[in-house]
Every structure is written in C-alpha cells, then in structure tokens.
Amino acid sequence: PTPYKPLVLTASVALLLALATLTPRAASAADAVNTTLFGNLAIEGYDAVAYFTDGEAVKGRADYTLEWQGANWRFASGDHRDLFEADPTRYAPQYGGYCAFAVAKGKMVGIDPEAWQIVDDKLYLQYSKKVQKQWQEDIPGFITKADENWPKLIAKE
C-alpha cells in the first residue's frame, strides 16, 4: 500500500462533498418556501416589503434578516423588517416564492426577483421576464390554477 492512498481517498471524499453542495437542489415537498442553497434565503435575498413600499425589487441586507417559515428573509431596512415581522403573510410572495406561472402549470421552479407583479395586494414572482409576459396573458386564470395546484405541490412526498 502506498502512503498516499488515505490522502487520495480523503481528497476524493472532500471533492464529492464540495460538488454536492454546489449542485442546485430541486424543490421537495418540504420546501414550502423557495430558498437559496447557501444562506437559506427567501426571494434570493430580496426585500419582500420593498415590492409594496418602493414599487421595485430591492436587495436586502444581511444585518436586517428575519427567520420566518424556516427561511431567512432579508430587508433593506429595519423598518421593512419590522413591517414584515408584524404581518408576514401580507408581504410574503404567493406560493412560497416559487414561480407563480410554473405553479399554475403544476411545477415548483425558481424565480428572478426582478420578474414580479402585485395583483390584488399579493406579490407574485416569476421565473423570468419572458415568463412574466406569458403570465400577464391570463393572470386571473393562472392564479386560479396556481391556487388549486399549490396545496397539492407542497403535499407531495
């Protein structure tokens, strides 16, 4: 046996572990909130309240973080964090922050925080701006379908 065999094995295991953490994870039924792989961030670290108060997608700051529903939510200010904490369901995106169009199609996929819309005082996020245009072709119909699909999607095992 060579003296390098344990070192090679250790390096191989370390490499496999590193690769496993870099692989994007698929959503599972337990993931009721769409989060990033690193940092467990909801809305990819964007401020949920800013969509309502500022009318734009604003990146949150690490020093204004709040844990809710097993995810870390970041905010641009302490005021936004406090508004969210007082009424999280008012500001949290629909369908756990997954793409609303995809949920209407029976799937759970990620989002582009810059592709969003507020409809009837609810935040809907989309996979991309291109998908957002498709969503806008029949918003009420897609919301109805997504509302029907969401409980089934998060209940799947």
Query: Strands across the major sheet, in which order?
Result: 1-2
Average of pLDDT? 86
Helix-strand category: alpha+beta
- Nearest-angstrom radius of gyration? 19 Å
Calculate the terminal CA-CA distance, rounded to whole Å: 46 Å
Q: Give a count of the beta strands, DSSP E runs of length 2 or more.
A: 4
**N-to-C SSE series?**
HHEEHHHEEHH
- Please report the number of helical segments: 7
What does this structure look like?
The protein has 157 residues and is of the alpha+beta class. The protein has seven helices and four strands; from the N terminus they run ααββαααββαα. The chain has helices at 5-22, 48-53, 78-86, 88-91, 100-104, 129-135, 139-155, and strands at 61-68, 71-75, 112-119, 122-126. A two-stranded antiparallel sheet has the order 1-2. Strand 1 (61-68) and strand 2 (71-75) form a beta hairpin. The model is unreliable at 8-30 (pLDDT under 50).
What features would you highlight for this structure?
157 residues; alpha+beta; two-stranded antiparallel sheet; 7 helices; 4 strands; 42% helix; globular
